[in-house]
Amino acid sequence: MKIRLTQLTNSLNIPHMKYSRLLTAIMMLTGVLTACSDQENEQDGANERTALSINAGIGVIPAGTSSATTRATDASWQANDAIGIVMLDTGTNTVTEGKTNYRYITTTGNGSFTPDGKEHTAYYPTAGAQVDVLAYYPYTTTISAGSLNIPVDVSDQSNPAAIDLMTAEKVTGRSSKAPDVSLMFTHRLCKLVLKVVKDETTSDVTLTGATAILAGTATTGNWNLITEKLSTEGEARDLTLPLSADGTIATAIVMPTQAGDGKSITVTTADGKSYTATIAANLALAAGTVNTYTMTLHRNQANITAGITPWTDGTTVPLESLHIEVPADATANGLTTFEMWRNQAQKTDTRIYTFSNNGNSGTGTWTATPKPFYIEEIATTDHFYALHTPADDRKDGLTGLKDFLAAGPASLQSSATGSIANSLSLNFKHLMAQLTVTLAPGKDFPTGVSTEGATVILPEMISGYTLDGITLTADDTKKTGYKNITVTSGRTAILTVVPQTLSQGTEISVKLTGGNTYKTTLGKAVALSAGNKTSINLTISPTQTAISVSVNPWTDTDAVAQNITIEGIETGSATGSYESADKDLLVLTGTNETIPTEKYTASYIYNKVNNQWNSNAPLYWDSFSQFAAAKAKGGSADAAGDNTGNADSNTPCTFRFDALITPAVTPTEARIACGAVKDYLQGSLTATTFGTPLSFRLSHLMAQISVTLKPGIGYTAEDLSQNVTVHLYGLHTLTDEGVETDGTLILSKEAASSPLKMNKAAEANVEGNFTYTALVAPQTIVQGNLVARITLTAQEADGTTPVSLNYDYRAGSNGFVYRAGQNNKLVLTVSKAGVSAVFTLTDWDDSQEATEGDVTVD
């Protein structure tokens, strides 16, 4: 008997209880029929597929509300909204059964979604296999099958709902046994609401027909369903925000933007007036948020007819439009008189205008001598020019130049009928350039070195010019080396200068009161333009000692230098020409030999990735005195502190530097207790002049010992390649004080109680012999004492009993000396009749002829 099982649905309008009983009866019948014949109980899987049942909601985001209908403000669905469904094999990124994208719709907007046709029905796999469910809105056919990227494009704001990207958190582990899927969607873009309002100064501005632009924002990108990340693509562009008909509100879906990106919004009225506001640097357009910005349009009324364009640029008020610039009261800035003429060719007919405030601050009138320009004599084509020449007492104190102000060409304002009006607006601009110089100590600059009262030495600059009407032209044949500027830390010096360009490579120096002079050159040409304020910020950076190290007998390398100098001294980093290990430690001590109280120490850690020695507090030349202080009056001691009374203010100081490298690789505590040591490297420099790059040639402080075993009578190389140990005896160890930077070693008073086992080389030499090595502190083993013991473990003739044979080497009449920086070699020939020994003392990379010695057999 074959039974066909299908899903049952209550499609006959049977009352629920009756329907349940009917379903129970059918299930019981199915069980009975199944029991009749196990062999015929085969299920038809093709008609058993279970479809996903989708219910979805929308998370409410923090926002105010607006009238615009988008999913970004409505926490409910609209009728016929369509979402995309993607099924993955559970726990993987593999699309289930090769179908990438299913379209589900909610016909009533109640959040219950059904497939949009048979081809879009998502079925669970058979046999109870589990899947993970991904979902997104709005549905698109352009989803990438391979990477599961959803294209995002907000450039068209005509239908915000169509670009309001939302995705649901992945639902995992669903199957035909649990077909219902509940999805909660989250907004992935940002909603921007712009409200445009007017104040009393712009009440006459018509906003109908206005446009709004969000400048410099990304408009296209991709959302990846797997990584849940949004990536932008293409160049930033201006985005038109859809303003309402009355121009008072705009609603848009935009890409999220980080704080500090400096985005701005510009509103342009139908008659061409533009108002721009910059979004504050601390505000971000975060994903899933509604951001409401109120932009207030404002303008200033003209209250007098003359103003000065300021040195600095106009400011932008966050979330408020830029003020429309109109002439403002300039008398407080010293503009109380100017000469004016009509047309450049008629400068001979010049009138002098003088301002009088009539005793009231902020108000007053302009009067002219010998007479004003009368309206009746002015033609509509006339243009006016004006020049303000400061009084002599307002010259720049350093350069001696005057800050000329000029206006024009300006024409009379016309009325609506086209007749000549009786007002003239003059906007004065600076003809000279302004240069500001600031001085500040840089990061890590030594706290004991003061920058107060430092002198800034400027380069030679153009000081001559010609003035024709309101046109000022620099005369590059006349140059001046201006007086030095004395400034304090953080203080700004302001100079009026002739417009010119400081060429690339122009040198500027700073001399501290302590005597050190710092120099810098311009990395590019700097234009000092008329009406512009150019700032040169001088940061005094500490000058590191340039250090290079090498190890005898290897060759030196030059130090890598930086570009900051003290009187031509290059700052440098520490480099090495030997094979350092990562995190090796370099300790550098510098002592002023002329002023011994000046002693500084710095530590450097080796970084193998970039082959550099790095330090959080490097050694700086700035910390040292370059010259000895003058002898104190009335006493025998001098300011140098050495109490010799011989210091001379013209005597350069000399310096001693000690370098010690401690390897990061450390022997075990057990081996250290037996006499093992690190390969310490040390070097010293004396009588070093100020600023000299420090090139150290380091030497090994420890001694190296190697023992090579050669087969003699009765042994082969193979016999000596195994079951052999070599130990060193009577070694003194380094104390906890260890090694000082000048190379002084501090050894234990007593020899180690246990011998040091030597390390066997991994490979035999060309003759098949093995060598054993160890690194120990320099010392001497006295005559007759045991130096090394070779232990061979062999078998008795019966082949079962192990026998240990010890071969001892003892110090001769002159003792045995472990010499620092040298390889102390023992070549031992082992025979069943005895051992012969050859002793060699070499540098670590040299080879020498061996000398013979005596050994005894224990």
UniProtKB/TrEMBL annotation:
<dbReference type="InterPro" id="IPR025049">
    <property type="entry name" value="Mfa-like_1"/>
</dbReference>
<dbReference type="InterPro" id="IPR042278">
    <property type="entry name" value="Mfa-like_1_N"/>
</dbReference>
<protein>
    <submittedName>
        <fullName>Fimbrillin family protein</fullName>
    </submittedName>
</protein>
<dbReference type="Pfam" id="PF13149">
    <property type="entry name" value="Mfa_like_1"/>
</dbReference>
